[in-house]
Amino acid sequence: MKLNTSSALDATIIALASLSSQGRAQNSNAGNVTSGVEPCALISALAAANVTTFEADIAMACLQSVPVDVAGDVDLIDGIKVLFQFQSTLPYLSDPPPGYLYSAVDILASLDAIQADVQAGIYTNDYDVQMDIYNLVVSAYDFHFNWVPDLVTVFNWNRQGSLLSLSSDGLSLPDVYDSSDVKALAASNPSNYPPSPVTSINGVDTESWLNEFAAANPWDHDPDANYNNVMVNIPLLSNSGGGPQGEGAYTHGMVYQGNDTVLTFANGTTRQVYTYAKTHCDLSGVTDGASFFQQCTTPPLTSPSPSQNGTEPAPPPATLENSYTPVPTDLGLPSPLFYPSPFLIASDGSIARYFPPDQPDLVVVSSMTLGPLDNIEFQNAFRSILATANAAGKTKLIMDIRGNGGGTVADGFDWFTQLFPGQIPWGATNLAAFGLTNALGEVATSLVAGGNVSGQALGALKDFDVMADLNIVLTQYDSWSDFYGPVTTHGGNFTNVKRNNLSDVSSLGMPVYGFGNDTKPQPQTFDPDNIVILSDAFCGSTCAVFAEMMKTQAGVHAITV
């Protein structure tokens, strides 16, 4: 990204600047409280006075005043240990393969150690117990494997301002800038306002501090991806409507960072950045840590969403599949936030197509999610994009999946089969094999085979109904035990491999092109050598499945920025 900011980046920075209006002013009295005041009572009193942001240190003091619940924590950890045995990557986390970039971690043994410390009276408050469990799970660096304790979610920590990584000319290595500097640059002549890079944070050189912070506030299993996630991410900003996720982990996080952060700049100046806490909890009646815990971590009982007679809500009207047909390109469609006007866009903004005017043979497909509101509309939009590109003589494709955290697996398969008709996408998985997996599989397979479940219950049992899936050579397993195995490898027990039955619409929830009744003739629009995937390393879940198939099956190259 060049430092000469575009109007889109200008708009982004201006949006981020709204954060600077929140914070210290309304809490100026909080730092004057004597040490004898209960911190949770203080926060309750501030909330009663309509204060909505709190000094980070006082919020942390409140959390650390919650007494340890020894019996409850012991039971909690026992339950977590059972639940975590379903995580099939545990043997690989404790003994990582070559090339793994983070440290090994034995999740179950570490839980035992935390539990032993609880029983030994090592902990002085319950927040520290929960935070140690949270940090342990985070050390797996897998956003599909997570457990966020209730106390950890009561407050979130926010800094005023964000960080951006920018290159001065688009060619040289980027420097890190504070968003307020870039905002000022966007509003002035660059020659009159040369912004200064951040050279250290809290006395630590910027790169070292950011890498350490990224490792403690991760989304992904790759250090570079986690580094990116500390910064402003324009696709994520757009996908969230300018919401907090795209502002970066530096700005919004779940890990306490102190009251202030000191930025030092290359020009020798410093800036003190305020950290404040916000909460979703109604703090009425809170007087101490114990009452805070009861008020903010015990959820009210709620009724199930289906109607009282137990029937499922009626599904919305079905979207019909379209054919491989070009569509008009001059519709004057609305632009996604911070993006130019597209030539085609889904009604929920989940996928859009661009024809760059200076690249006559290029089409850019931008998608920040594979979890659209309407899967068939999403599928139709991609089909129309390909048909329109083909009719316009486009020969090159950029799949811009920056900010795409995944979604519906079948949508990822459908992208692949529409790009490469006739290919069977490779999607395979196995489960951790232990007693509960076996018991659930036997019961689920029996119930589904007997026709005793439907609707939401059927969806909930899908992963354990092996008859809905296929084996590695795409034939059906004879029974649950035929699938279960177990197979022992890398010090762990696993089931055999299963693959999705792409012809089973009821199992997938949508058709996949080339399978079932979605087999209308459709040409291959682009040669794989003329396709590039553009990513920011945030690509996860279904997005990662799609990207892996594109790389390993189709030989498509990727660029990560």
Automatic annotation (TrEMBL):
Biased composition, class Low complexity, residue ranges: 297-307
Pfam families, A to Z: PDZ_CPAF_rel
InterPro entries assigned to the protein according to its UniProt record, in alphabetical order: ClpP/crotonase-like_dom_sf, PDZ_CPAF-rel, S41A_metabolite_peptidase
Ranges where the record places region Disordered: 297-324
Chain ranges of the CPAF-like PDZ domain: 157-280
Protein name: CPAF-like PDZ domain-containing protein
